[in-house]
Amino acid sequence: MSTKEKVSPELDLEVLEQEENKIVLYNDEVNTFDHVIDMLVAACDHTPLQAEQCSMIVHYKGKCSVKTGAYKDLEPRCSKLLEAGLTAEIQ
Q1: CA–CA separation, 82 vs 88, rounded Å?
Q2: Of 1, 12, 18, 41, whose Cβ has the fewest other Cβ atoms within 10 Å?
Q3: Which of 70, 76, 71, 78 is nearest to 15 (CA)?
Q4: 35-86 confidence digits (pLDDT tens)
Q5: Predicted TM-score (pTM) above 0.85
Q6: Domain containing residue 32
Q7: In the chain, how many domains are there?
Q8: CATH number, domain at 31?
């Protein structure tokens, strides 16, 4: 007895497209760690520990992906980071 599995490629593609977008935060010489941490908590719903870890990665590596998801969810979050003086973009 054999069983055939139906696959819905449209659904899989839609899920992949939603998760491809990410906010990348870049290092700068202006903002303090506390300001970056506070903004990641406020704009990206990070925990304080997660925000601190991201800020350290940004400091030492020059950039860090801080949030992934659908573009329409990321756009206002990225705008909030930019308005706070941080350097970020959606990729």
Answers
A1: 6
A2: 1
A3: 70
A4: 999 999 999 999 999 999 999 999 999 999 999 999 999 999 999 999 999 9
A5: no
A6: 19-90
A7: 1
A8: 3.30.1390.10
